[in-house]
Design brief:
Blueprint lengths: L4 H5 L3 E5 L3 H13 L3 E5 L5 H8 L3 E5 L1 E2 L2 E2 H9 L9 E5 L4 H9 L4 E4 L4 H26 L20 E6 L2 H12 L5 E6 L4 H5 L5 E5 L4 H12 L7 E6 L4 H9 L4 E4 L4 H31 L11 H18 L3 E8 L2 H28 L3 E5 L4 E6 L4 H16 L16 E8 L13 H17 L5 E5 L3
Parallel strand pairs: 1-2, 1-3, 3-6, 6-7, 8-9, 8-10, 10-11, 11-12, 16-17
Antiparallel strand pairs: 4-5, 13-15, 13-16, 14-15
Helix pairs in contact: 5-11, 6-10, 6-11, 13-14
Protein name: diguanylate cyclase
Catalytic activity: 2 GTP = 3',3'-c-di-GMP + 2 diphosphate
GO molecular function, one term: diguanylate cyclase activity
């Protein structure tokens, strides 16, 4: 089967930097066998251009290059806004703890030491690429402008907070020792728990990070999978600590969701360096998720009145229609339009007109209540959708809408006295006769057109009234 660079690049592009050709070849063989697209380089010189051309998803670099270091590579990658979230991993020639700590303190995302097994290398690559993919998905969501009436808004900036870090070990004695070592150098809110009492983690303050002891028995890895599946801890940073240099167990933990692994026993300095980097990343992702949630809400809301917008109204009516047909229930659509609204704008300006719109929206929403929804679908035009209703009930509510606008004149700052305002309503009623699995609801566009025709009739008949059209549904 023929394969191309484009086929493989779907799995991720990895840039390998090393001044020794045999090291580059070995890494390329390992990574290519796993269907990654590998690009190679030897030194810092020319790296900016190579980064622009390759657009890597991950950089594996020797800790020392002919003309620089892994830390220099990380700094160059960070200068490109399009690559700022690309992980950079240093490859050390030997398992030198001091060199590993130096690389982590320089901002490297991880350090791997020769010789390492294929399984561990590939597990770490998969873990880092998954993390970057999560970031990119949120970037796509938060960069798109909301639709509907809502205006685009700035990036949400959350105030810094002291992170909650849970320590989870097999024995309370071990967790107490870890807590004591970490508290000497960190300002995190630390809590200690044992693996036999996971409820303590789940019922306390939501942890930003969990430092946990990885044991060789299956229950230790099952605990990791459990933490990733819980709503409370799904987004928590998970840093595993292995007593031995066990590449197979470390690989399994990474594939089950660990964000980082410390091998060779607990080291407070290394743990803190990894916590600092991973918690900073989590804070950024939390802000992006909050921004995305806010934008999703804004995409359904009219910012002036706080009502739903046209986009929401069309989706909601479509759902009401399909549910009504299956249950044999009636539903109604109303189009309502403030009468002579142009004269209000002309007399009191757009500020006065906006005040009338917001007050009218408030009154209509209170009147409809839980019976349905109210949406602003145009300048002074509103849509009301009612589910599971009868024509009599819908007509009563339409008349109440007219009353709530007419009965209390509107106060405006520039008006010498409250001004009278009225509204006209066009109502279309649809009443499926029987419950039917094969029910085909009428086209929403047609129902809205009928409601608009009824609204036009109400306007032509003198305004401040309700006109009804009956659907043949």
């Amino acid at each position: 089967m023929q394969s191309t660079v484009n086929d493989m690049s779907v799995q991720g592009t990895i840039l390998v930097l090393d001044g020794t050709s045999t090291n580059r070849i070995m890494l390329k063989v390992q990574l290519t066998a796993a269907w990654y697209h590998v690009v190679q380089g030897e030194r810092l010189r020319g790296l900016p251009g190579l980064l622009r051309r390759a657009k890597p998803d991950l950089v594996l670099t020797s800790q020392t290059l002919p003309d620089g270091t892994a830390a220099d590579v990380k700094r160059l990658v960070m200068t490109d806004p399009d690559l700022i979230d690309v992980p950079v991993v240093a490859i050390a020639q030997q398992n030198d703890k001091a060199a590993r700590l130096k690389a982590l303190s320089d901002g490297l995302d991880d350090v791997l030491a020769y010789p390492f097994k294929d399984t561990f290398l590939l597990a770490r690559v998969r873990s880092l690429l998954r993390a970057r993919a999560d970031t990119q998905e949120l970037q796509v969501g938060t960069s798109s402008n909301p639709v509907g009436f809502a205006e685009p808004s700035g990036v949400l900036i959350m105030p810094a907070k002291t992170a909650q870090v849970a320590i989870l070990t097999k024995s309370s004695c071990t967790s107490a020792l870890w807590e004591k070592a970490l508290s000497k150098q960190a300002t995190y809110n630390l809590s200690t728990h044992t693996t036999s009492n996971l409820q303590g983690v789940l019922s306390g303050p939501v942890p930003d990070a969990i430092v946990f002891e990885i044991s060789a028995n299956p229950s230790g890895l099952n605990l990791l999978a459990d933490l990733k599946s819980r709503g409370t801890t799904r987004h928590a940073v998970l840093i595993g600590v292995l007593e031995e240099e066990n590449a197979e167990l470390a690989s399994e933990a990474l594939d089950r969701g660990a964000d980082a692994i410390c091998m060779g026993g607990f080291c407070a300095e290394e743990t803190l360096l990894r916590l600092e980097k991973q918690i900073a990343r989590k804070t950024q992702l939390d802000q992006m998720r909050a921004s995305l949630r806010r934008r999703l809400v804004e995409s359904w809301i009219d910012p002036l009145t706080g009502l739903h917008n046209r986009r929401y109204a069309m989706r909601a009516m479509d759902q009401i229609m399909h549910k009504a047909g299956g249950a044999g229930q009636g539903f109604a659509i109303m189009l309502a339009d403030l009468d002579h609204f142009k004269s209000i704008n002309d007399t009191f300006g757009h500020t006065g007109g906006d005040l009338v719109l917001t007050e009218a929206a408030k009154r209509m929403k209170q009147t409809v209540g839980a019976a349905g929804f109210v949406a602003r679908i145009g300048g002074e035009e509103f849509m009301v959708g009612l589910a599971n209703t009868t024509q009599a009930n819908a007509l009563d509510l339409a008349r109440e809408l007219c009353d709530c606008i007419r009965d209390t004149p509107f106060d405006l700052p520039d008006a010498s006295a409250p001004i009278p305002v009225t509204i006209s309503v066009g109502l279309i009623m649809a009443q499926p006769n029987v419950v039917s699995q094969s029910y085909h609801p009428p086209r929403l566009e047609g129902l809205i057109k009928s409601a608009d025709t009824a609204l036009y009739a109400a306007k032509s008949a003198g305004r401040n009234q309700v006109w009804v059209r009956q659907s043949a549904a």
